[in-house]
Amino acid sequence: MLFALVRLSLACACAATFCVFPARGEQLSFAQVERGRYLAAAGDCEACHTAPGGKPFAGGRAIPTPFGTIYSANITPDRTTGIGAWSDDQFYRALHQGISADGSYLYPAFPYPWYTKVTREDADALEAFLSSLDPVANSPPPNQLAWPLNERVVMKGWNELFFHEGTFKPDDQKSPEWNRGAYLVEGLGHCGACHTPTNVLGASEKQSALRGGKLQDWYAPNLTADVRSGLGNWSVDDIVAFLKTGRNSRTVAYGPMSEVITFSTSKLKDDDLKAIATYLKDVPSGAGEHKDDQTQPDSKVLTVGKALYVDNCSGCHQAEGQGVPAMFPRLQGDSAVQDRDPTTIVRLILNGAHAATTDARPTQVSMPAFKWKLSDQQIADLATYIRNAWGNSAPPVSASKVGDVRHSTAADSAQERGETR
């Protein structure tokens, strides 16, 4: 769940203090800068705009997409390679319209389809914070996109088809808390960028908002009120605890969401997290959500899968899949386990993962990898059993699906190491 943003006023004893930041040569309110710092955390800006081993916000992080690799921009106030020469209006235009300072179109890997909802006041605060950073001279590598997508003018047509510009407008029929949550989720938090399915051109399918989506060989789970694969059985407190600590009595955050929690949602105020939870609990599930999930797994597969579970998984996740609260995820009744797309559970069994670490939960919990030990068919049988044991219900997993995930994640790892395949 990529979450977060805010409309808030940070009360600050130093609100009347002014500091001069030489990067822009402007006087900026300390309170505005600190508010912008909070917004940057809420939007997970640092994670996306920092390359592994690089300087924070200096860009260069590789962002895989179905169309090639895009490298994040340098958003420090360096005047040559960053945004130090941008005006306030140019910065706002980038967020609000997806157009860079030089007039070129941005790719939606920079999630302006969501940032367009951010108010001018919050955009100015965010820019004030970025302007207060130390400038870093860093030019990210060129994007690796095939023609014609490497021509930014193509995005003009994409915008006309799929982009709807406009600042967030509160719903008068909803509570202030609900509206705050909607602003957080739909704005800088850009949760739908990961948790909404996309069409063949990479645009979010608005009619299926927050019902889950594929992302970099992970499946970002359903965030609607669906009882089986969504948040229908989660309480507001469950959601708040998960976003704050990366863990709750139901599950533990792994994969991309682990990073979101570490760098973003764990930094948010409890009131904002509660607002997010209030909004998400009100997102309806789709009609006929599981109409294609009627295939029953073969009893022999379940027998084999159960034996594999007892041998490899029950030590942590317990015999009945009940897990250990805040340590090892509960598999019984787990919404991610029962997703229509099994990519995440297959990937976790194959490659393992490290759970989110936060100030509240600094001890890292790891899931070991089993790709060295189990074949594609064994992992398929194991995943099918987990998805259908203890009252769970989800379509069977095929060995070919496991093979596809094994191959694609191996290719991703090789790319990250700079190897060719």
From TrEMBL:
Top-level taxon of the source organism: Bacteria
Region (Disordered): 396-421
UniProt keywords, alphabetically: Electron transport, Heme, Iron, Metal-binding, Respiratory chain, Signal, Transport
Comp. bias (Basic and acidic residues): 403-421
Cofactor: heme c
InterPro entries: Cyt_c-like_dom (IPR009056), Cyt_c-like_dom_sf (IPR036909), Cyt_C_IC (IPR008168), Cytochrome_c-type_DH (IPR051459), Membr-bd_ADH_cyt_c (IPR014353)
UniProt signal peptide: 1-25
Presence of the UniProt keyword Glycosyltransferase in the record: no
Keyword RNA-binding: no
Domain Cytochrome c: 31-134, 176-284, 300-390
Pfam families, per the entry: Cytochrom_C (PF00034)
Protein name: Cytochrome c
Organism: Bradyrhizobium vignae
